[in-house]
Specification:
Length: 79
């Protein structure tokens, strides 16, 4: 899956409580109903399911670490 779509899904999950709830309950269905292309994306779906078992703080740290200057306040998408 393209990084742009992963970023969009991540941002939506952070900012949209209802989407986050649906994503937690049934990731495949939530993504399909939201119009995201999930066909052939088994590895991505597996990683989404694994990520849902982590705390929001751990997810934010992991997400930000993937960007130059990652970490809060370091120029990543969250700061």
């Amino acid at each position: 899956m393209e990084k742009k779509l992963i970023d969009e899904i991540t941002t939506r999950a952070i900012s949209d409580a209802e989407f986050r709830k649906q994503l937690s309950a049934d990731p495949e269905r939530a993504l399909r109903e939201a119009g995201y292309p999930i066909e052939g994306q088994e590895a991505f779906l597996k990683s989404v399911k694994a990520a849902l078992g982590q705390s929001p703080e751990a997810l934010a740290s992991e997400y930000e670490a993937g960007f130059p200057g990652g970490g809060t306040g370091g120029g990543g998408p969250m700061g």
